[in-house]
Amino acid sequence: MKNNIRYIIPVITAISLTIACTQQKKDNTGHGILFRDVTLIDGKGGQPEEHTDILVQGDSIAEIGHQLDSTNRTVIHLEGKTIMPALISTHVHIGTLKGTTTKAENYTRENILSQTKKYGDYGVGNILIMGTDRPMLSESGLLDSSRKGLLPGARMYSAGYGFGVKNAAPPIAFGMDNVFRPDNASQVPAEMDSLLKIKPEMVKMWLDDFGGKFKKMDPAIYKAIIEEAHQRKLRVASHAYYLSDARKLVAYGVDVIGHSIRDSVIDDVLLKEMKAKNVVYIPTLSLDEFAYIYARKPEWINDPFFKNSLEPGVYEMITSPKYQDELKNSPAYAKNIRAFDIALKNLKKLFDAGILISMGTDSGAMPLRAQGFSEHLELELMVQAGLTPLEAIRVATQNSAAVLKIDKKFGTLEKGKTADFIILNANPAKDIKNTRSIISVYKDGKEISKGPLNRDN
Q: Which CATH topology does 11-85+412-454 take?
């Protein structure tokens, strides 16, 4: 990857915005907050609109225009700054990661809320947890409270408890012991009824051998999972790796392919079938880069924006010569580099074919996949694959909201939508890495963070 400039928020900018936001907190007029003279990226994929005003009243965007009336309104002057929608990540894991471990005992209220706040600090407003949740999330009311905006950081949506294979994927050692693992297709209906009780956004299943380590799920079982889910009006997202498996999944009616196809470039026949069936594709490119990149020092390894996203002890682990040598000498090293290259090619081919692409990263599934930073790296990698910065942003905002079926409120910045947005010090339409120049993060019309480099504020 090419070296890129680092983004440093000027001290004067930070001070001026702090003063403006302090004025906001004192605003008792009820006439709203006017964000004056910004460059607006609305999430729809069109060109940024310069010198724009955004009026926020309550938790919503009341008006967007030029030189809006400022009478009796708190005005935040943002000349030269950019506002874009908060990011939405449709494939993450939360709660089981802590320090350098990923295990069931880490799954506590405190750990979950620490991680939703971290996502919020990085400008991620909504997340879909893909099949590794535990009963506490719904039984404690955390999930409902989060969706109502009552808890810190990103709002949580859940795929509940996924479907895997006994003594195989997903690995129990990574805190994935609360997963359905049916012996045969006849067990699926009762398990699906059990899952339905917690009202998941979709059903997650794992179809992969993890590099030949595990036995893959029986086709009769995953066909039954798809059929039983659809009977209950639930969508199905599948972990996948191989093109041959993707063909079967699409033929059986899967709704979402939750990772890149990484062994072969997707053929035109499958493209047409995916488009005809409206199959969503979540490439998780950052996961594939993380699989090999720490064998050397990526250009962002010492960037505070990256380091602040890591759990304690992870930086020391991934920068140790021992770890880097083991990774470089691994039999899977060359395969992982090739898989990443194929993933880039497949994303571009799918995007150009008009397949709906949604952003996801698998962040939080293990220590290497840093929560928050992964989402910004994903944007960069989508651009590396051939998307424009504005196309990548649309994937991570408008498209992801559509996949979560929350697009009536989130995903784009327009009149009537929820005021979830990021204020940036530079324009990501010019360089996608400018999404990392976060000055402030807003949720429901209120500032919740000044970004990950000021996480204590």
A: Urease, subunit C; domain 1 (2.30.40)
